[in-house]
Design goal:
Helix content is 19%, strand content 39%. By secondary structure, it is an alpha+beta fold. It has a five-stranded mixed sheet, with helices on one face.
Amino acid sequence: MRTLKLKVKPGSRDESLVEQDDGTWLARVKARPVDGKANAALISLIAEHFGLRKAQVSIKSGAAGRMKLVQLEE
């Protein structure tokens, strides 16, 4: 298992996942933070980036905020 610390920017023009110099990740998703759409887009983005199924990616903490801890089951 691996845990990522993420800062999420919802409502971006493009979708990207980039590792920062301090070891955290910056995730940009197009979806707005309404009805969990941004979290669903984030899970899809992370799963695609690491070659995992969506079921292997879960938000451990920070579901309602911009800073999140995401757990990957590899």
